[in-house]
Amino acid sequence: MLQATANGVILINDKTGAGEYTVTAQSRDNTSAEDIAQRHYSGLSFSYRRSGAIHSVTVRGTVLL
């Protein structure tokens, strides 16, 4: 997210100078027993406000196991 902010993809907040994004990771305490037993984690998410120069976005990601 820092790199996307530095590259002008994510909007910068004029008051704070920081990128307008959040990354959330759910704790184990908020994970179901079934997901824990299956070793499945679905608690990671992010959001951001796009820079005005961006009109379309494709997001890709890889999780290495």
State the low-pLDDT regions, or none: none
Radius of gyration (Å): 16 Å
Spatial order of strands in the largest sheet = 1-2
Helix- and strand-based class?
alpha+beta
Q: Biggest sheet, in brief?
A: 2 strands, antiparallel
Average the pLDDT over all residues and give the rounded result: 92
Q: So how many helices?
A: 2
Envelope shape: elongated
Structure, described:
It contains two helices and two strands; from the N terminus they run αβαβ. With 65 residues, it is an alpha+beta fold. The protein has a two-stranded antiparallel sheet with strand order 1-2. The two termini are 21 Å apart. The mean pLDDT is 92.
Summarize the SSE layout with pairings.
Blueprint (H helix, E strand, L loop, with lengths): L1 H5 L14 E5 L7 H5 L6 E5 L17
Antiparallel strand pairs: 1-2
Q: How would you briefly describe this protein structure?
A:
This protein is of the alpha+beta class and about 60 residues long. It contains 2 helices and 2 strands.
